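User: Earlier you gave me the apo prediction for this protein. Now I'd like the version with calcium ion bound, so I can compare the two side by side. Same sequence as before, with the ligand SMILES added.
Assistant: Got it. Here's the input I'm using:
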Amino acid sequence: MIVVRIIVLMFICKDVTSMPCLSNESKEDFDDSRIALKDMETHLRNTVKKLENGFKNITASIQDQLGVVKDALSNVGEKVKKVDSDFQVLGKDFLSKHYWIGLTDLNEGEYRWNFDQTIVSYLPWRSGYGKLGNGYDCVAMLKSNNGQWIDYTCNTKYYYICESNFCF
Ligand SMILES: [Ca+2]
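And here is the structure of the complex with calcium ion:
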């Protein structure tokens, strides 16, 4: 048993002693490599930190912008609801009232919009209206007859529709 241990020990010693020793030059290369690897590790660690911070900033910026967009979207949604609601109210009113629509022919037969004095291109007259020379200078939309138009005396008390430029 002792003989086997000695033989094994001899083989190990032979292998250990047969390994090449590091020369001073190799040792310097090894040290330089270790220093370079340490520098690279530091550089990579700093780069990761910078990227993480940059990502956090970008994420915060995107979240801010997303918040602004969400607010705007909510605002638009509320305005759409309001417009829908207003149109529903108007729709009911159109069924029960006549409206002046801001169209006149002060120059007989030449119907112009009061808002900008452009000549009208669409005239859905009720049968018997819109003729020249009748002396009626203001145009109203009827509550019935599919909203057809009549020219009538301007001092008649009807509701009215105004055109306006508006912004949200
Ligand atoms: Ca007229």
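For your comparison, keep in mind: Residues 38 and 168 are 61 Å apart (CA to CA).
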